[in-house]
Design brief:
The complex is a heterodimer of chains A (449) and B (337).
Chain A: H1 2-27, E1 28-36, H2 44-60, E2 63-71, H3 75-88, E3 94-98, H4 101-108, H5 116-120, E4 137-138, E5 141-142, E6 145-148, E7 154-157, H6 158-163, H7 168-172, H8 174-180, H9 185-197, E8 207-208, H10 217-223, E9 235-237, H11 239-254, H12 267-276, E10 283-285, H13 290-297, H14 305-311, E11 312-315, E12 327-328, E13 332-336, H15 343-353, H16 356-366, H17 373-376, H18 379-382, H19 385-390, E14 397-398, H20 406-421, H21 427-442, E15 446-448
Parallel strand pairs in A: 1-2, 1-3, 8-10, 9-15, 12-14
Antiparallel strand pairs in A: 3-13, 4-5, 6-13, 7-10, 7-11
Chain B: H1 2-16, H2 23-62, H3 85-92, H4 96-127, H5 131-146, H6 149-160, H7 167-174, H8 182-185, H9 187-212, H10 216-224, H11 229-240, H12 242-258, H13 261-266, H14 279-288, H15 297-321, H16 324-327
Helix pairs in contact in B: 2-15, 3-15, 4-5, 4-9, 4-12, 5-9, 9-12, 12-15, 14-15
The chains are: A alpha/beta (449), B mainly alpha (337).
Chain lengths: 449, 337
């Protein structure tokens, strides 16, 4: 009897499995989403999808097998992974990456254009801050949905400015004075030089910037009046603007404001601890997302966010030759693979996370700026003094171009910065080198002016 | 080595005893012999085919296309054939000269000072001390090789970082000495030390086993002749190490030419303008790794193909210099029989 029961149970399970499987398979949709995020503060980039999964399942009447793949590998490897998997025929359905990838990936046909009808089908997208749509356009078509925006400000140490004799009023008014153009980049360099001379900071610690290539270096070029793309969509290299940038980086080192080995300096062991303490570096060109990273990972024992609020402030990048203070925004965007078998479901998932609730979770935890109009008026956003206080920066922002040749352009331009900062070349020689490299690598695809 | 030669001689001896066979039989014998030889060579041959010949053919093809992240495809018919344009671009690249000489500098110094020089010194020293102590010291020298690259490099980065982060800087600080960031101040010294400490263990194992296999009667004879330790090394040991030396120098030259992972993690080719960028790293950078992901597989393959050609040429030169033909030739003892 016992054996009979067991056999019956097994048979029922087998019959049940075979009987139900086709029904489940009919309505089940596999969606894989790939995100790059610095844990824990940026985890909502992918985790938000898990939060809305049931809601989308209910709305579409299907079962979604959601597969979230999230880590923090280098951008280059991350992007190669998507390109190679696309050609292997096994790409993810949704990839989160920099908007500038649209130029190359749309041209290669590995991401899907989103028609106006597809966009209009989801009212959530109408709430996006209008100028963010420009970042996802290529050849007149939309290729992605913005996930976040940020500002790349100058962080200044209030502690060290006090040591330098600045009054509280001068310190607190610095962001406004930078925005109005009263306090320029030259003024910042003078202040940093003074801090070095008076021993407030060690030589080379007056102004720091990122330790490797990335979007930041472009705002110096913009600040010197350069343009990267002409009306025909061709990359442009403005020699006068680039020369001014190279002279600037040369001067930063010559005057003892910036260390000559800044590029390549170890981020985790040297840069972040030094800046987060607010005791060693006077000015630092970073990104808003640095703030929670420092608070959580470097100065939690000193009070984390409260310590930063008390001892650190942020401003736009002070005006250079153009006379206008600027910053640069580099929206990350969700893109759908052109090989996705369920692009409608993928877009529905993206729409579900493009809400004030979902995006506030990410923005507040990671100090990214809002991307939705209603989000900017939401209580959570307004109640966060850092984020709402930095939001004005989006009015002064610039962006990278969506151009397939941007990567090569950027590598060449950055080579010049490396060369002058490390004192390998004089600015004029660096410019000559970069022009030659651009002509060799891009040929007719770049206009040297 | 002498034992090996002796064994080879015996094998040849047994094969050469019968009187000359008639022509047809010789053909069958030769054919069987060839098949046996081919059978023994087959596993290695398959490996060479899969992991050298086919990849070389592939990168040769890729180097003549403009394949990049913007036009990537696995369909050979869709790839744009650009002939030798990538090589022309490579020659026009103003940093190629610097990268080439960086590579020569890196290979020459790491090979001579560590992969061969230090390896030989460690072998000789550890052979001439107590056997257990010698084994212990050799085991210590293997540690860098068996430590995962990332862990090994992190240790070095901590070692040479500036104060208060670096271990050496802490000592310097205690003695009132400057505490610079050594990786930025003297990148080549650190790069060569890091790679040399890994490379030395390979030669050390080969040389130690070769020295230990030298027949005792040769060593005893030199002792009876009243030789000093230095004389034994100079006149007995080193002359008998020609084959292991050829092997280590050839193998390690090719290995150094193509290795870049330590440099990638340590300096990424910097600081400054390609200060420690070597050829293999440059191929990697161009083909696979830039911040914005603009991989240029075609151009990177051209870099890689140049490295293959240089490697093959170097191997041929080494074989000529060390008279490889004589080393693997039939033993002289056969002539006496």
């Amino acid at each position: 009897m016992k054996r009979f029961s067991l056999t019956l149970t097994v048979l029922c399970l087998i019959v049940g499995a075979f009987g139900l499987a086709p029904v489940a398979a009919q309505d089940a949709v596999d969606i894989t989403i790939r995100c790059k995020a610095s844990p824990p503060e940026e985890d909502w980039r992918c985790n938000n999808f898990a939060e809305v999964e049931e809601q989308v399942e209910a709305a579409l009447g299907i079962q979604i097998n959601l597969n979230l793949v999230q880590d923090n590998i280098d951008w280059g490897d991350y992007k190669n992974e998507f390109v190679l998997s696309s050609e292997a025929g096994t790409p993810v359905d949704i990839i989160l990456s920099g908007h500038e990838d649209i130029g190359a990936w749309a041209a290669a046909g590995i991401i899907m254009p989103l028609s106006q009808e597809m966009i209009d089908a989801h009212p959530e997208f109408a709430d996006l801050v209008p100028n963010l749509w420009e970042s996802v356009m290529y050849d007149g078509q939309i290729y992605g949905i913005p996930q976040d925006a940020e500002a790349r400000p100058i962080f200044y140490s209030k502690l060290l400015l006090r040591d330098l004799g600045w009054s509280e009023e001068e310190i607190e008014s610095l962001p406004d004075r930078v925005t109005s153009g009263e306090f320029t980049f030259e003024d910042m360099m003078d202040t940093a030089e003074q801090a070095v001379e008076e021993g407030v900071v060690e030589e080379g610690n007056g102004f720091w910037h990122r330790n490797g290539n990335g979007p930041d270096f472009l705002y110096y070029y913009y600040g010197m009046g350069g343009e990267v793309e002409n009306e025909e969509g061709k990359m442009v290299f403005d020699q006068a603007a680039a020369l001014r940038v190279y002279e600037l980086f040369d001067e930063l080192v010559e005057r003892g404001i910036t260390r000559s080995d800044m590029i390549g300096l170890d981020g985790n062991t040297i840069i972040n601890p030094a800046i987060a303490s607010a005791e060693e570096v006077l000015f630092n060109a970073g990104g808003t997302w640095n703030w929670p990273n420092w608070a959580i990972n470097y100065i939690a024992d000193r009070g984390g966010n409260d310590y930063l609020v008390e001892n650190m402030g942020l401003t736009l990048i002070p005006a250079m030759d153009t006379g206008e203070a600027i910053t640069l925004t580099h929206p990350l965007v969700y893109m759908i693979s052109s090989q996705s078998e369920n692009p409608d479901v993928a877009l529905a998932l993206i729409a579900a996370v493009t809400t004030p609730e979902a995006n506030n979770r990410h923005a507040i935890d990671s100090f990214h700026l809002g991307i939705l109009q209603s989000q900017l008026e939401s209580e959570d956003y307004l109640n966060n003094p850092q984020i709402s206080g930095a939001h004005y920066m989006l009015d002064h922002t610039t962006a990278l171009p969506n151009n397939p040749n941007w990567g090569s352009w950027s590598e060449a331009y950055y080579t010049g910065i490396q060369a002058v900062e490390n004192q390998d070349l004089e600015p004029e020689a660096a410019l000559e080198t970069v022009v030659q490299q651009l002509q060799n690598e891009l040929g007719d695809n770049v206009v040297i002016q | 080595m002498a034992e090996l030669q002796s064994e080879a001689g015996e094998v040849r001896l047994s094969r050469s005893i019968p009187s000359p066979p008639p022509a047809p039989r010789r053909r069958r014998g030769l054919s069987r012999s060839n098949l046996t030889a081919l059978g023994f060579m087959a596993p290695a041959g398959v490996l060479v085919l899969l992991f050298f010949i086919i990849p070389v053919l592939l990168i040769t093809f890729l180097s003549m296309t403009d394949l990049s992240h913007a036009n990537f495809t696995t369909d050979l018919a869709q790839m744009n054939f650009v002939g030798l344009a990538n090589f022309q671009r490579l020659l026009n690249d103003q940093f190629v000269g610097k990268i080439f000489f960086n590579t020569v500098f890196y290979v020459l110094f790491t090979l001579s000072l560590f992969n061969v020089g230090l390896a030989l010194v460690i072998s000789l020293l550890t052979i001439h001390i107590d056997r257990r102590a010698g084994f212990f010291f050799r085991a210590l020298w293997i540690l860098p090789r068996i430590t995962p690259v990332i862990v090994y490099i992190l240790i070095w980065r901590r070692l040479v970082a500036e104060a208060p982060y670096g271990i050496l800087a802490q000592f310097n600080s205690m003695m009132g000495q400057p505490t610079p960031n050594l990786l930025a101040e003297m990148p080549w010294v650190v790069v060569i030390l890091v790679n040399g400490f890994v490379g030395a263990s390979f030669g050390m194992i080969i040389f130690t086993s070769a020295i230990e296999s030298i027949p005792k009667d040769l060593m005893n004879a030199s002792l009876v002749d009243g030789s000093t330790m230095m004389q034994r090394i100079r006149y007995v040991i080193l002359p008998l190490l020609r084959w292991p030396l050829l092997f280590v120098i050839t193998y390690q030259t090719l290995s150094l030419l193509t290795s870049f992972e330590q440099i990638l993690v340590l300096t990424n080719g910097g600081p400054g303008l390609y200060r420690t960028e070597v050829w293999a790293l440059s191929a990697y950078h161009r083909a696979l790794s830039t911040y914005f992901g603009n991989a240029q597989w075609g151009y990177g393959s051209a870099f890689a193909l140049v490295l293959v050609v240089v490697g093959v040429v170097m191997a041929v030169i080494y074989m000529r210099v060390f008279r490889f033909g004589e080393l693997v030739g039939e033993p002289k003892i056969e002539d006496l029989e």
